[in-house]
Structure formats: structure tokens, C-alpha cells
Specification:
mainly alpha; 123 residues; DUF3899
């Protein structure tokens, strides 16, 4: 849990730093432009982290299993050959686990919610 917290913090600081430099190079510095750029940049890790979370939970396993089974069952001869070789489409695949999933998800969500709150506060 400590590693996830540290990675989340570093990713959040990196997004804030990148946002600062983008606003700085735009030429017009204002809090509203910083909030807008940070909000848009934080959507990217939120979407990537959300996709990885859904993938890790096995949502796409049934689709991959169905396509493998469809591909393997083209003819009886191919099915028999697969049985003899010991390769079967009967085993569902297990998704990989990624170490960056939760830091991406948490930093993106934190910054999105924070920028929404700050955006309403400065209006």
C-alpha cells in the first residue's frame, strides 16, 4: 500500500508540474487556465487506469475465450488434432496484473475531482 501511495503522489506531482509548464509556455498565466490544463491532463491517467482496472478484473476474458473457441472449432479434424496435441480452448485466459493501475486511477481521479472543485470555487 505504501508503494501505491508513493507512486500516486509522484504521478500527481508530475501531472501538476507538466500542467504548470504547459500554462507557462502558453504565455497567458491564470489560475483558470492552470485548472483547465490540469483537468485535461488528469483525464488521461484516469482513462488508462480505468481501462487497466476493467482488464484486470477479467471483463474481456469471456470475449477472448469465445473468439479462441470459435477459431479452434472450425472443423472436427482441427478439434481432434487440438485434443491430441493437448491444446484446448476450454481454459479461459487469466489477465495480467499491472503495478501502475491503481496509481494511475487514484492520481487521475484525485486531480479530476480537485480541479472540478477548484474550478467551481474560482468562478
Amino acid at each position: 500500500m505504501k508503494v501505491v501511495t508513493m507512486r500516486t503522489f509522484l504521478l500527481t506531482v508530475a501531472i501538476l508540474t507538466i500542467s504548470f509548464f504547459i500554462v507557462l509556455f502558453q504565455g497567458e498565466w491564470s489560475l483558470l487556465s492552470f485548472v483547465n490544463v490540469t483537468f485535461l491532463l488528469s483525464l488521461l491517467p484516469l482513462m488508462i487506469g480505468g481501462f487497466l482496472f476493467v482488464y484486470e478484473q477479467g471483463f474481456f476474458n469471456s470475449f477472448a475465450y469465445g473468439f479462441r473457441k470459435l477459431h479452434k472449432s472450425r472443423s472436427k479434424a482441427e478439434r481432434y488434432l487440438a485434443e491430441l496435441q493437448g491444446t484446448s480452448a476450454g481454459q479461459p485466459i487469466h489477465p495480467k496484473k499491472f503495478a501502475i493501475t491503481y496509481p494511475l486511477l487514484f492520481s487521475g481521479l484525485t486531480l479530476v475531482l480537485l480541479m472540478i472543485a477548484v474550478g467551481y470555487a474560482i468562478r
